[in-house]
Write a structure and sequence with these properties.
This protein has four helices and 18 strands. It has about 260 residues and is an alpha/beta fold. The protein has two domains: about 20-140; about 140-263, Pectate Lyase C-like, CATH 2.160.20. The chain has a ten-stranded mixed sheet, with helices on one face. A six-stranded mixed sheet has the order 8-10-12-14-17-18. A hairpin with a 2-residue loop joins strand 3 and strand 4 (about 50). The longest helix is centred in the N-terminal third of the chain and has 14 residues, at about 55-65. It is elongated.
């Protein structure tokens, strides 16, 4: 009989514990989808769990960028899926700078938060505000209620695009090479020289209004109009609408006297 005693079993509290599974929805992630490189931010809330704050998100982003050098080609455009994450202009610019250091370019911001959408547009990034973001091109709901208007105070520069499921109000100029797409009206307190698509979900009764309309292209619902051959001779508020002969442009003072019936 062996006189040596067997070692005592270790207390349960000292046994090594398996690491808890990581919830990918609470992590900053890169994802290839339909030929696009997506940067997905975790939502503010995930199954009653508070998502990480900005300092942790920033550290996660830098770690992903350091580890992903073979994951993408240089100068790859990035679509930031911010979801309901509240990001201000400084944070968006920090993300853009970090991507630039990794030879990536922030191209567009998708957000369901109005403050984030405004901050992105004001910082000069293309933006699309949606009620809920599951993928880049969700099917349009039939008969849905429009979102509240999106107000942006900035100059919309060439290359920028602003999309919103409601009315878009721009306080500033819209330059050539840019575009505004709204499911409601488009109102520009400045010169409009880009591409405008109001009533993008098919509403022909929507309007496009600006202090001066000199667009590259106008679209209202299913109607399309090219820019007039000659720019207006003087500054005057104008309204584009759909009449019996398609898209028409008239002075705001004249439009206020009547409301043409859309086709």
């Amino acid at each position: 009989m062996n006189s040596e005693s067997s070692p005592a079993a270790a207390p349960l509290s000292t046994l090594p514990q398996a690491d808890a599974p990581v919830n990918p929805n609470l992590q900053v992630r890169f994802k290839n989808e339909a030929g696009k490189l997506l940067l997905l931010m975790p939502p503010e809330m995930e199954q009653n769990t508070v998502a990480p704050g900005w300092p942790e998100l920033w550290q996660q982003l830098k770690q992903r960028l350091d580890a992903g050098q073979r994951f993408w080609q240089p100068n790859t455009p990035v679509h930031l899926i911010a979801r309901d994450r509240l990001l201000d202009g400084r944070q968006l610019q920090a993300i853009a700078d970090a991507l630039s250091d990794a030879q990536l370019k922030l191209k567009r911001v998708y957000s369901s938060r109005r403050q984030t959408a405004v901050a992105a547009a004001t910082a000069g990034f293309s933006v699309e505000q949606q009620a809920a973001i599951s993928h880049l091109n969700p099917p349009a709901a039939v008969g849905k209620t429009l979102e509240e208007p999106l107000y942006v105070q900035t100059t919309v520069r060439s290359g920028m695009e602003i999309r919103h499921p409601g009315t878009v109000v721009i306080v500033g100029d819209v330059n050539p090479g840019s575009s505004i797409v709204a499911e409601g009206d488009i109102v520009v307190w400045g010169n409009f020289r880009g591409v405008a698509h109001a009533g993008a979900a098919g509403n022909n009764r929507c309007l496009i209004m600006a202090l001066r309309l000199d667009p590259t292209q106008l679209r209202i619902g299913e109607y399309v109009a090219r820019a007039p051959e000659k720019a207006p001779p003087h500054l005057q508020p104008e309204v584009a609408y759909v009449g019996e002969e398609g898209i028409r442009i008239t002075q705001a003072t004249d439009f206020a006297k009547f409301r043409p019936e859309a086709k």
